[in-house]
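STRUCTURE:
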């Protein structure tokens, strides 16, 4: 009798999990409607290479198959806003959605069928333009032409990089600071990334008279960056 009760409880648990997973998934049409509302954060959980080959407009990227990267990037998502997640077929994003729900996000919706279903519905995706990479010579010139230079290794699809945008804008608008600003695209300028041993985004580097004097990976508050720029 006890065994039957345990089996019944396990069955109810599995059924509840399955029901929750189904509720967390929406059709392509529903996904598009919610995406167009402008109230959702959009998260692509595929690899960076997959993202670059074609992605949904305004989507952020965090690789579900890279647990360390996924955890690091998603911690900067806004918990007060709902999230739309997608991958190639809906499998990875379904797992990612359940993970995010477990972290306390109240609404996380996965697109059934993923980007494959999206394309089969005749809907368009954004693809990265064929922009030339920054050369090593260009980087060297940019970091030596002025006495004080701040370099930002970031990308539009990187959640913590997006979080840093208002901080950087405030510093650039601060007339008390005299520095040059160099932006390195972490999704495109791979040669420079490799030469500077940048493996995660964002990374901030300060050069004084052509020499690197400070570096930090991750989100940095405005006060710390300003302090480093005035030392």
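SEQUENCE:
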């Amino acid at each position: 009798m006890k065994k039957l009760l345990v089996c019944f409880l396990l069955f109810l648990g599995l059924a509840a999990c399955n029901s929750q997973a189904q509720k967390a998934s929406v059709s392509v049409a529903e996904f598009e409607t919610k995406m167009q509302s402008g109230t959702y954060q959009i998260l692509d959980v595929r690899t960076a290479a997959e993202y670059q080959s074609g992605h949904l407009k305004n989507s952020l990227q965090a690789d579900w198959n890279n647990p360390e990267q996924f955890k690091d990037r998603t911690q900067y998502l806004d918990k007060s806003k709902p999230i739309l997640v997608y991958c190639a077929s809906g499998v990875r994003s379904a797992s990612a959605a359940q993970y995010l729900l477990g972290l306390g996000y109240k609404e996380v919706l996965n697109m059934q069928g993923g980007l494959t279903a999206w394309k089969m519905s005749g809907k368009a995706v954004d693809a990265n333009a064929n922009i030339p990479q920054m050369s090593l010579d260009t980087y060297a010139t940019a970091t030596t032409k002025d006495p004080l230079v701040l370099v930002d290794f970031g990308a539009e699809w990187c959640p913590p990089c997006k979080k840093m945008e208002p901080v950087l804008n405030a510093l650039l608008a601060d007339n008390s600071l005299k520095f040059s600003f160099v932006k390195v695209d972490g999704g495109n300028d791979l040669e420079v990334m490799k030469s500077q041993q940048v493996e995660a985004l964002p990374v901030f580097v300060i050069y004084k008279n052509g020499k690197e004097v400070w570096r930090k990976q991750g989100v940095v508050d405005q006060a710390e960056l300003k302090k480093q720029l005035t030392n």
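REMARK: Residues 136-230 form a domain with the Glutaredoxin fold (CATH 3.40.30.10).
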